[in-house]
Amino acid sequence: MKRLTASFRLLTSTFAIPLAMAPAWAQSAPAPALNLELNAARPSDKGCRLTFVVNNALGADLSKAAFEIALFNEAGAVDRLTVLDFKDLPAGKTKVTRFDFTGADCGKLSRVLINGATQCAGTGVEPAACMRGLKTSTRIAIAFGV
What we know:
four-stranded mixed β-sheet; Immunoglobulin-like; about 20% helix; single chain
C-alpha cells in the first residue's frame, strides 16, 4: 500500500507542476487596440473644448485616423455631427488632442457617440482596424462610446 501511495504521489506531483504552469502558457498577447478616452470638457472662447487621450496599441503606425462623431445635448437629441481628425498615431504611443466645438455648451453635452472611422490608414493596416480595435472610456460625466 505504501508503494502504491508513493507512486500515486509521484504521479500527481508530476502532473501538478505542468498544470500549475499552464495559465502562464495559456496567456495570450492582448488583442490589438486603439484606446480612445474622453478626458475633459472645458468651456473655450469658441464654445466647448473636448480633450481626448488616444493610445495606439494596434501594433502598427497609423498615418491617418479620423472618426465621425455625434454630440448629444441634455435632452438626448443630436446637436451635431462632425469628424475628428487625430492625424498620425505612432504605434505604442499616447497622444493628447483637443477639439473645439463652436457654439457648444459643455454643460449641456450628455453623450459623444462614435459613428465610425472615416479614415484609418497605415502601412499594413486594414481600413476596418480602427473600429474593430476601438476601446472607449471616459473620465468625465459625458457618456462616450460606439
